[in-house]
Amino acid sequence: MDNHWNYATDKKFIKKIYDQIDFFYGTEKAIKILDLGVEYYNSDCQSFIKNKNIKYWQLEPFRTSDKNDGFFHCKVEECLEKYPGNESEFDMILDFGVLGWNGIQFSQSEQEKYTNNIFKLLKPGGHYILHGDRVETKPEYIINVDKFIRPKFSQVEIMGFNSLEIITCPNHGTIWDITFWKTNEV
Fold it and tell me: Which H/E stretch holds residue 93?
């Protein structure tokens, strides 16, 4: 396991989420999880999920990975156009540092398409876990939760986590929000 999971404050917390996924789904069959973004430390993520009933997929436009059960090579905003027929395919989407990461800026229109596709990729009652930092200051790029997420999702306490977990780096003071969402019935 990459040491990043042992020393980075937010990654240590995210590892706890991966560890709870097995128990959350238990013996349910044909569970599919989509993990957004591929970095060097993501090569460990599939190994964190021990439940053989869970299929682990990844999505990334700039890199590829073979540490998964399936892969979308695209941006979230173009996923359903590039890979049609994947609506309502996933039980859970893990967004650990794509939409909410300060290294990528999403305009308001990009946020709308991004969150619409997240909703469409999820099965009814599916879960979306969003990890974001509080660094962005430009209004155009701040995640508009009330406009693009709340109309389709409700915050939910799952896997022993609060619906909003706030993580603070003791060394640098960075603050991350990890929000647990569930699709609303429409």
Answer: strand 90-100
| Percent of the chain topping pLDDT 70 | 98
**Distance in angstroms (rounded) separating the CA atoms of residues 141 and 120:** 22
**Any idea which residue has 């979230």 for tokens?**
76
Q: What is the pLDDT of residues 46-63, one digit of tens each?
A: 989 989 899 999 999 888
Please check whether residue 171 is in contact with residue 120, taking contact to mean a CB–CB distance below 8 angstroms. Answer: no
Which amino acid makes up residue 67? K
**CA-based nearest residue to 159, from 21, 10, 12:** 21
What's the N-to-C CA distance of the chain in angstroms? Answer: 41
Task: Give dist(CA 16, CA 33) in Å, integer.
Answer: 16
Is the entire prediction scored with pTM above 0.70? yes
Domains of the chain by range and CATH?
A: 4-183 (3.40.50.150)
Other C-beta atoms closer than 10 Å to the C-beta of 136 total: 17
